[in-house]
């Protein structure tokens, strides 16, 4: 049985850990507020680009001759981009992305398709490497505050893999931010453009295409330059913005998950301290009782 001093030392140790978790919660909360502001500013722009790209896709008479817009005849190799964080201590934030990625890999292999791995974030890269997976494209060091240039670099590498026919489709798995308590794993198709189901839907999943009669009443869209040329310019931007949005969503999700995890750790530490203090009081009471019994026994021995 641990001595009273050992119990007291353990209480002090738990209290020190509690101070660290409290500080980490406060830092995560401050970063979460900034990340929420960036998402709120980004979502309308990303939705507008998506709707614009969808309208241009509907307007083109033929898909332009551009490697990035070519839909491969067969889907033999699928690239999966996992967006995780650079650090841990965020509850299930990273692990649920890895589980979703492994589950998607099993589904694709059962369909006879090969998986090519792309990863953003140190945790995702190390987890894939630990599992013996070859990570073709990897980026890390910016998950706390991603910049648009980070998304552009990641998009350029992935686009090159698609244009060189190293992959026939690209999917992206990330944590969609709902609230500090809730992060939902989302799987989006990045390439080819023809397989993106939500290209003409809004944030709630509603179809944003106008009714033909309404379009006729308002007048036709006029494109300058022609839709084919606009599509060539829009597609790279659309991919970059989609990845950038996913990075921002993942960042906010990570801060929210870490804040929640650290709060839970503080509550657990408080419960542990209460239990240890109760144990120490019982030990102190047992020691006092033992001393009294020894004094009484000594006094009886003198009489």
Strand order of the largest sheet: 3-2-1-4-5
Order of helices and strands: HEHEHEHEEHH
Cα shape: elongated
Mean pLDDT: 83
Structural class: alpha/beta
Indicate the CATH topology of the largest domain.
Answer: Pyruvate Kinase, Chain: A, domain 1
What does this protein structure show overall?
This protein has 303 residues and is of the alpha/beta class. Helix content is 60%, strand content 12%. It folds into two domains: 4-25 and 260-296, ATP synthase, gamma subunit, helix hairpin domain (Helix Hairpins); 29-259, 3-Layer(aba) Sandwich (Pyruvate Kinase, Chain: A, domain 1). The chain has six helices and five strands. The protein has a five-stranded mixed beta sheet, sandwiched between helices. Strand 1 (77-83), helix 2 and strand 2 form a beta-alpha-beta unit. Helix 1 (4-59) packs antiparallel against helix 6 and helix 4 (148-163) crosses helix 6 (227-302). The two termini are 35 Å apart. The model is unreliable at 214-219 (pLDDT under 50).
Topology diagram in text:
Elements: H1 4-59, E1 77-83, H2 93-110, E2 114-120, H3 122-130, E3 135-139, H4 148-163, E4 169-177, E5 183-191, H5 212-218, H6 227-302
Parallel strand pairs: 1-2, 1-4, 2-3
Antiparallel strand pairs: 4-5
Give a short overview.
The chain is of the alpha/beta class and 303 residues long. It has helices at residues 4-59, 93-110, 122-130, 148-163, 212-218, 227-302, and strands spanning 77-83, 114-120, 135-139, 169-177, 183-191.
